[in-house]
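Collaborator request, handled under Task 6.
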Amino acid sequence: VWTAASSPPTSPAAKASSDGAQEEPLLYHLRGVIVHKGEASHGHYYCFMHKHGKGWFRIDDETVTPFDLETGLVDPKTSSS
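Structure tokens returned to the collaborator:
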């Protein structure tokens, strides 16, 4: 689950040294998400992409629109609010 943030979400990843000892975790910044909506045999793909200094965008076929993390992560079909 994402929360609203001014920068992309981050995720730590474990890193082991050559001798197997645990080192400081690497930190990854989420830059994009690919979404498939539909069934395994058919459906539609779209994506979300973060552009540094510009925010998030939804890219769907021929349209690119700004995406607000605070309000855009709620699916109106499943939300009770």
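The cover message to the collaborator said: "The beta strands are 10-13, 26-29, 32-38, 43-51, 55-60, 63-67. Confidence is low (pLDDT under 50) at residues 1-6. Please let us know whether this matches your experimental observations."
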